[in-house]
Amino acid sequence: MNPTALITGASSGLGYEFAKLYAANGYNLIITARNEEKLQLLKEELTHIDVTVIPKDLSQPGASKELYQQVMDKKLPVTALVNNAGFGLNGNFDELSLQEQQDMLQVNITALTELTHYFLPSLKKAANQGLSAGILNVASTAAFQPGPKMAVYYASKSYVLSFSEALAEELKDTNVHVTTLCPGATGTNFFKTAKAENAKLAASTMSPQAVAKAGFEGYQKKHRVIVPGRMNRVGALAAKFVPRSVAARIAQNMNGANS
Ligand SMILES: NC(=O)c1ccc[n+]([C@@H]2O[C@H](COP(=O)([O-])OP(=O)(O)OC[C@H]3O[C@@H](n4cnc5c(N)ncnc54)[C@H](OP(=O)(O)O)[C@@H]3O)[C@@H](O)[C@H]2O)c1
């Protein structure tokens, strides 16, 4: 039996790259996002494996359960869950739409948590059968400090990192491993969606190919936390040693516009 990976946010950026990497390593795929056309195009690229397309808007309450049910109805045995879908919004908290920020929490936090809960039994079952089984959650270097001008986004990624590290410890005797990928700025649609194309942070990015490769390799090696790129690792380390208020001021500056 081929292993099967469920990848959220596979229509672009890191998710698209993860899909190609998992496929190249013999996984069948279940790919999801809102844009069905892009998912179908990805499926057409990956002719050597089985690809199931399930379009879903994860900002909608109940969407994760529907996705889980559709996977179960198709009797697809998920051995890898890649919680990658997510987005950010740039601006002061009170000036951004509350609804859009609630949608962000739904996608970045709630859907990730629900999918993990729904699919853990399948992953444990696969692990008990001697198959490699695990979860790859995409957080961010935003997880390491507060982020004024993207306050909810940074907080959501702190949740992803904390939740995933705790889960990794809970599951350490089950053979289901949990890897958290914490990318720094990466050249995807992220900044356009976040309306942060002019932010200083967007000026220097890693390629999505390099970031996804680091995440996939970390997942294969069962590492708990991966921060791709030397400068990102330095930043993540520095955030542990400077006062939180100083780290917040630096993040605010990076989230602000390039003058
Ligand atoms: N790029 C960066 O600088 C960076 C840095 C750190 C962490 N990250 C994280 O990396 C992950 C992937 O982002 P990316 O950089 O690859 O950006 P991206 O190219 O914009 O991809 C985001 C993916 O999430 C999906 N998505 C967004 N809203 C969704 C919704 N409501 N329902 C279902 N799917 C949804 C999008 O698909 P549809 O639009 O088709 O729904 C797309 O496939 C995110 O979790 C992001 O927070 C990115």
TrEMBL record:
Provide the protein name. Answer: SDR family oxidoreductase
The keyword Oxidoreductase is annotated on this UniProt entry: yes
| UniProt keyword list | Oxidoreductase
Q: Which Pfam families match?
A: adh_short (PF00106)
Is the keyword Oxidoreductase in the record?
A: yes
Enzyme nomenclature, EC number? 1.-.-.-
Q: Name one GO molecular function term.
A: oxidoreductase activity
- Which SUPFAM superfamilies has this protein been placed in? NAD(P)-binding Rossmann-fold domains
Task: Return the similarity comment.
Answer: Belongs to the short-chain dehydrogenases/reductases (SDR) family.
Q: Which CDD domains does the record match to this protein?
A: SDR_c
In terms of InterPro entries, this protein maps to: NAD(P)-bd_dom_sf, SDR_fam
